[in-house]
Task: inverse folding
DNA sequence: GTCTATAAAATGATAGAC
DNA sequence: GTCTATCATTTTATAGAC
C-alpha cells in the first residue's frame, strides 16, 4: 500500500472509534508510523484526508453492491433480506479491489453508521456527496421494486416510489435503532421488519 | 434564568449547529456573555455541561410527551400521526415548564437528531442515558398497541412487541432519512409510511 | 458568585534539510 | 517523497482578586 492510502486507512480506523474531529494528527502519526511531512505532502490539510476517505471508502460502496446483487438469484424478499444483511455485514473488501483495508473484519456497522452521521453533521462541505449516495440507494430500491412488479412477483397496485421510500425508511430505521438500542439483536430487528414488509408487498 | 441554565442554554444552542465537541469555552463565553469563572463554578468541566444538557433538555422529553398524549383523543392511527408530527416539530417548551429555551422556535429536528447521534457516538459515558430513553420510547409504542388491541381498534393476530419494533424502526427511519436525504419533504416521508403502516395494522 | 489573568497542554500547519 | 524541528493558535482549566 502506498503512503497516501496508509494515512487514509489509519485515519479511518481511528475515526471509527470516536469521530474524525477527535482524531489528532499526532495520533495518526503515532498509530500509522507516518510523519507530518508525509501527511502534508499528500493532503492539503486535515479535512482533505476526510474527503479522500469519504470518496474512497464510502461512496464506492453502492456501485460495488449493485454489481454483487446482479449475480444474486432469488425472490424480491430474498434479495431484500440479502441487501439488509449485506449492509450491516459491511462486506467492505470482500468484493472490492478498490478498498484495501488491512483490518477488514473489524469494520463494525454501528461505528460505521455513527461515523457517517457525525461527518454529515460536522462537515457541511461534504453533504452533497452524501445526498448523492442516498439518491443512489433510493434508485436502487425503486428499480428492485419495478423489476419485481414487472415479473409479477409482488402486488402491482402500489406506487413504486412510495414503496421505495418505505423500504429505505426501514433500512435506515433498523440501522439507527440497533445502533442506539441494544435491547434486541440486529437479526431480530431485520426479521421482524421483513415479515411486516412482506405482508405489505405480497400479491 | 439563573447563570447555570444560561450557560447550558447557550451551549446547547451552539452545539446544535456543529456538534458539542466543536464548541469551545471561548464561544460559550462570548455568545452567552458569561465568564470562565462562572462556568467552572457551576460545572466540573466542559463535559459536565453536556451531561446537564442531556439530562435537562433531552431525557425529560418522553415523560412530557406521554402526559400530552394522554389528553389527545383519536384512533390509534391518529395518535401515531400525532406522535410522529409532534416529535419532528420538537415542541420543546410549548408544554413544558422544565425547559426554558429562550429561542424555542429555532430548534430544528434535524439538527437535534444529528446532535443526539453525535453525542451518543463521541461520549460513551452518556450512552446508558440514551439506552434508557429508547427503552422508554419502545415501551410507549408497545403500550399504545396493546391498548388499541384491547379496544379492538386494530388487528389482534400480531405480536405487540414485534409491532412496536416495526413502529419504532419507521420512526427512527424517517427522521434519519429526512435528515440526510433532502429529495422529499418530511411530510411525504411520514404520510407514505403511515399509509403502509395502516395496511399492516387494520383489522 | 463572578471576575480577570494566566498557566499548561495540545492542535493544525510550515520551513527547510536530505 | 519523507524527515525533524518548530511556529502560531487555540484549547481546557486554575489561581486569586473582589
Result:
Amino acid at each position: 500500500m502506498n503512503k497516501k492510502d496508509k494515512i487514509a486507512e489509519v485515519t479511518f480506523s481511528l475515526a471509527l472509534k470516536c469521530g474524525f474531529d477527535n482524531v489528532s494528527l499526532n495520533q495518526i502519526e503515532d498509530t500509522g508510523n507516518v510523519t507530518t511531512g508525509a501527511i502534508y505532502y499528500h493532503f492539503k490539510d486535515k479535512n482533505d484526508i476526510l474527503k479522500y476517505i469519504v470518496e474512497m471508502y464510502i461512496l464506492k460502496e453502492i456501485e460495488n453492491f449493485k454489481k454483487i446483487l446482479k449475480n444474486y438469484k432469488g425472490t424480491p424478499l430474498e434479495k431484500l433480506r440479502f441487501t439488509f444483511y449485506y449492509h450491516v455485514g459491511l462486506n467492505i473488501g470482500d468484493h472490492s479491489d478498490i478498498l484495501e483495508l488491512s483490518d477488514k473484519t473489524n469494520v463494525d456497522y454501528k461505528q460505521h453508521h455513527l461515523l457517517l452521521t457525525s461527518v454529515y453533521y460536522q462537515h457541511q462541505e461534504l453533504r452533497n456527496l452524501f445526498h448523492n449516495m442516498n439518491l443512489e440507494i433510493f434508485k436502487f430500491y425503486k428499480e428492485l421494486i419495478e423489476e419485481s412488479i414487472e415479473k409479477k412477483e409482488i402486488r402491482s397496485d402500489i406506487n413504486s416510489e412510495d414503496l421505495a421510500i418505505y423500504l429505505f425508511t426501514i433500512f435506515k430505521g433498523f440501522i439507527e435503532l440497533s445502533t442506539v438500542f441494544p435491547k434486541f439483536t440486529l437479526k431480530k430487528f431485520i426479521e421482524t421488519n421483513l415479515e411486516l414488509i412482506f405482508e405489505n408487498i405480497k400479491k
Summary: The two ends of chain A are 51 Å apart (CA to CA). Residues 92-104 of chain A have pLDDT under 50 and may be disordered.
